[in-house]
Design a protein that fits this description.
Blueprint: E1 7-12, E2 15-19
């Protein structure tokens, strides 16, 4: 799997831009026991940053979103 870097700049709660990449960002696909590392650098001096995984499919779990302890 190739290393992919995507930068998203959030200007307000209603909009976002993806720099040099289409929005949404790249698909992250991993198999069981794969290790995935995601690094976030918050350069917003007065605002917090969060990441949320949509459609995260879990084994033996009927839910694909709002997975506990992930967001």
């Amino acid at each position: 799997m190739a290393v992919v870097e995507s930068v998203v700049i959030i200007h307000d709660a209603k909009s976002s831009w993806d720099v040099d990449r289409p929005f949404p960002g790249p698909l992250i696909r991993a198999m069981f026991a794969d290790r995935v590392r995601i690094r976030i650098t918050n350069m917003l001096r007065d605002q917090s940053t969060a990441i949320h995984f949509h459609d995260l499919h879990m084994i033996n779990n009927p839910w694909a979103d709002d997975t506990a302890h992930i967001t």
